Amino acid sequence: MTQFMNNKEDIVTDAVDGVIAVSGGKLARLDGYPHIRVVVRNDWDKSKVALVSGGGSGHEPAHAGFVGEGMLTAAVCGDVFASPSVDAVLAGILAVTGPAGCLLIVKNYTGDRLNFGLAAERARAFGLDVSMVVVDDDVALPDLPQARGVAGTLFVHKIAGALAASGVKLDEITKRVEKVIAGTKTIGMSLDTCTVPGSPKEARIPKGMAELGLGIHGEAGVEQIQYSDASQAMDAVVAKLDAHMGEGEHVALLNNLGGASVLEMAVLANEMANSTIAAKLKWIVGPAAMVTSLDMRGFSVSVYPVDAGDLEALSQPTPLPAWPGVSKITPVTVLNLPDGLAPIKPLPSEHAETRAFLTKCCEILIESEADLNALDAKSGDGDTGSTLAGAARALIATMDTLPLADHTQLYRAIGQELSQTMGGSSGVLLAIFFAAAGDAASSGLSMTGALKAGLVRLQEIGGAKLGDRTMVDALHPALEALEDNLQQAAKAARAGADHTATLTKANAGRASYINAQQLEGHTDPGAEAVARLFEHLQG
Question: Which region is the signal sequence (predicted)?
Fold first, then answer.
């Protein structure tokens, strides 16, 4: 996969310089590039306990992103997924450690333990007071004697950072964070592996599967499970965590492993807040990308049973944008709609033929969802099918509340329902179409006349004309032919839809932003939906 980099050998040094360049002068790096890559606070005076962490790169914003007031004093950056050298770690210790001493915060990987541990010994030989803690929060492999250190390390960074900033001595900080490490538990899940710069992507996780308990260096998880949706994914994660959680109030850290969208992470936050461990969770850090695995499309959840002192330390402000802060998990608040927006619905009435007809229309759109999405992906954003199918499902769900025996009121009710349930411009336009059709029907026009009036209003407000490559190209000829019969309307709709594939310029909708080469030969999805609707209805 193509990546935004210059040379893979320079990606870490380029990234470190980028972090420093946009820090507003708050960060600096030690000399010795490229073998020594140490990011330090530019304002550090060595009067308090220094906090040094680090490890392999590829976990950004960890570790350099957490260097600053209230958190780390220095971060030692290795190559991608590789521990930094002993000399690099020692350089970091010597650069920031004063009489108050230094705490090394190390994730439990062999290379990190050895390199940081030897650097600590050498620093002590210089007469420095250096303590080291090893984070081992991963619960994916319960029988493993050396559990991995993963995203729960951030609890240690933040709590130790707050204590150091307030002047707490090294021995006390070490004691406090050892308690944090003992109580922190983490597990991750991903739908895909990560892409190491300059290397081919490993296709280890089959489609329809998720990997549970994988590491932050792309290591294989403890098991692959069937993936169905976000709820099932979160259930699998919290089930592993629940076995390790005691009583009391916990803080959760919801971490994006790098490739999940912000939208997906918000969905996962909702699932976590309603999961089987929700009663134990009172606070949350995130959701955010904090300890990533390059572009891994996954997430991890860390939990820790906080006391008042821990919560105060976690809540201490820090100016670092990489730290999202601690928030209380609360129930969703629902406020009433403002006056005038709460819909006044007509009285429901039953009419078997109308119910069957409307249901069939909805089922046609639902069955066409995937095909219409595929068409839309060629000229738009790939959601026409989902938008129409979603509205169709909503109409089916609300069928019992519709005035099926009063077509004038039914048009208006459909328009009102679409305005609430159907997103995008198409939802607004169809709401206008049906509302105008309802107004026309109330003045005595026939069904065809009312629908034509609705189309006129839709075109007036939406601006689309025949030949603009929209649903109008199928709907207009269909309604003109509907005076004859439904079969003729279906033929006219199909001819209009097929004609849009010959049009290389769209004058309305998202397709108007697409060049001619991408449009040619592809039917407009809105027009195709209209054609399919009429064709299936005539059959």
Answer: none
